[in-house]
Structure formats: structure tokens, C-alpha cells
Specification:
It contains 5 helices and 6 strands. It has a 6-stranded mixed β-sheet. The radius of gyration is 17 Å and the shape is globular.
Length: about 190
């Protein structure tokens, strides 16, 4: 895991400077007592994911093991989630509304064709975290999706994919939108 440090005063000063210059400023991340930056928490609701619930939880855990700048957590009872995960009979897909927000469908069609449910979950969550499809691609690329074939069970992002997500969520001036366009449907 990576540890980032940044002084809050410097980050706040730069945020004000950028906002005065017409750029889009984002809130400076919160640092803990040691000065390490806290991960941005993104919640997910997998209550509609039916038989894929454990695959969704595992996909979220894989992202949590892989990156530091964002943490995927199950939504608390009575709270609204950033990500809604649903099961249906179609092809897996993600609908992004903004970076870290949207709806994921774990489609049974891909599962019935032999694709790995944990890879599907991790891949679709990758879209919500800002990553586009990278097809065709090798099994070592999580975002190669179904183009890697049904024998591919790799559910972990590669080094470049991890770095991209870290860039979107890490630091005081992380991008406010990822490579995936906002309000887009990504059908894998």
C-alpha cells in the first residue's frame, strides 16, 4: 500500500488559487494524525445483485487491496449508496453518473457463456472508478473484459489500471471525472 502525505494548508492554498484562476477546485483530502491521506469512501449497495452478491463483495475487496486512494464499502442501512449493483439477464454493463457513482449490472448472459463472476464484478466496478474498456486485450488487463476469453479469471487490475484509479481519486487535485464519460452506458 502506498502512503501519501500532503500538508492541508498548502493544499487549501492551491485549491483557492486554482478556483480563483477559473479552474475547478476540489476539496482537499483529509489527512490522519500521521499526515497520511485518507481514502475517498465510495459505498455500494449489492442488495439487488441476487446470486452474485459474494462476487460483488469480492470485486470490491480486490479494488480495496489494489488501490489506496479510494475504498469501496457496503452502504450502511438507511443510507444512499454511490453505486447500485443489480443482477439481470442481459450482458454486464455499467452506467456512470460521475466518478465513483453509477449503476452496475452483473448480467447473467456473460455468466451463462462461462465468464468469471468475480472478474465481471471487478471489471464493472472499474468503470465506476473511471476506467474505460480496453478491448481487445490480454487477461492481465482487467479492463480487457470479455475479449480475454472465458478461460480468463484474473479479477485484479494491472499496474497501469491501478495507477489510473489512484490518479483519479488520490491527492488534493485529483481529477473530478475519469476517462469514462459521465452519464454513459458501458456495455461490455
Amino acid at each position: 500500500m502506498h502512503v501519501r502525505t500532503l500538508t492541508g494548508g498548502f493544499a487549501a492554498a492551491l485549491a483557492v488559487t486554482f478556483s480563483l484562476m477559473g479552474g475547478q477546485a476540489v476539496a482537499a483530502p483529509v489527512a490522519d494524525a500521521d499526515g497520511a491521506l485518507a481514502a475517498r469512501v465510495v459505498t455500494y449497495d449489492a442488495s439487488g445483485s441476487a446470486e452474485f452478491r459474494s462476487a460483488v463483495d469480492r470485486g470490491a475487496a480486490i479494488w480495496n487491496e489494489s488501490v489506496d486512494a479510494v475504498e469501496l464499502r457496503p452502504v450502511a442501512a438507511g443510507q444512499r449508496a454511490n453505486i447500485r449493483v443489480l443482477a439481470d439477464n442481459g450482458w454486464p454493463r455499467a452506467i456512470t453518473t460521475s466518478l465513483g457513482n453509477g449503476t452496475v449490472y452483473i448480467g447473467r448472459q456473460a455468466v451463462n457463456e462461462g465468464h468469471n463472476t468475480i472478474r465481471i464484478s471487478s471489471h464493472e466496478l472499474g468503470h465506476i472508478l473511471g476506467l474505460p474498456d480496453r478491448k481487445p486485450g490480454p487477461c492481465t488487463s482487467l479492463m480487457s473484459g470479455s475479449s480475454a476469453g472465458t478461460s480468463c479469471t484474473n479479477a485484479y487490475p494491472n499496474t497501469a489500471e491501478k495507477a489510473e484509479v489512484e490518479g483519479y481519486f488520490g491527492g488534493a487535485f485529483a481529477r473530478t471525472a475519469g476517462a469514462v464519460p459521465v452519464n454513459s452506458l458501458i456495455v461490455n
